[in-house]
Amino acid sequence: MTDTSAPGNPNPPQDPNGEKPAAPIMRVLGQYVKDLSFENPGHAPVQSQPNIDLGIDVGATPHADGNGLFEVSLKLSAKALADGKVMFISELDYAGLFQLQNVAQDQLEPMLLIEAPRLLFPFARRIIAEITREGGFPPLLIDPVDFVALYQAQVRRANAAGTPTQQ
């Protein structure tokens, strides 16, 4: 069980007027595997380096309870092809429950779609590495992801389609 009370900041930042504005807070209340799939259609010896097709998607939805709670989902998919044959297919939907406080509206999306997945990524990366190793392959170690560039691409796609970026 997670304690949801926020610890006090003994030295909150001050603005020029002497006011003590509340600093933005992002808390990870939980993280979990929502969905995991690994398909190993046939483990045949491979003479060549497989081509890995990697997909990454990030989405955020407000939690039904409100109170600044959001579920952020990081979806990783990997398909390995060698000699024209599928070696494995792995799909992971890894999510976290985040609580945001004192966050300006214009900073909400960047916090949810950049900072939150940045916190989730190392855990999702480890799961993909372990599941491919358990499938009989060398562990698939996904390179670090530039979530800023991914967010900017998502914003461009959403603007082109005329839809909001949060999913």
Give your account of this protein's structure.
- Keywords: Chaperone, Cytoplasm, Protein transport, Translocation, Transport.
- Its main location: cytoplasm.
- InterPro entries: SecB, SecB-like_sf.
- It comes from Hyphomonas oceanitis SCH89.
- Belongs to the SecB family.
- The chain has 167 residues and is α+β, with helices and mostly antiparallel strands.
- It has a single domain, classed as Roll (Bacterial Protein-export protein SecB).
- 27% of the residues lie in helices and 35% in strands.
- The chain is built from two helices and four strands.
- A four-stranded antiparallel beta sheet has the order 1-4-3-2.
- Helix 1 (105-134) packs across helix 2.
- The longest helix has 30 residues, at 105-134.
- The two termini are 28 Å apart.
- Residues 1-14 have low confidence and may be disordered.
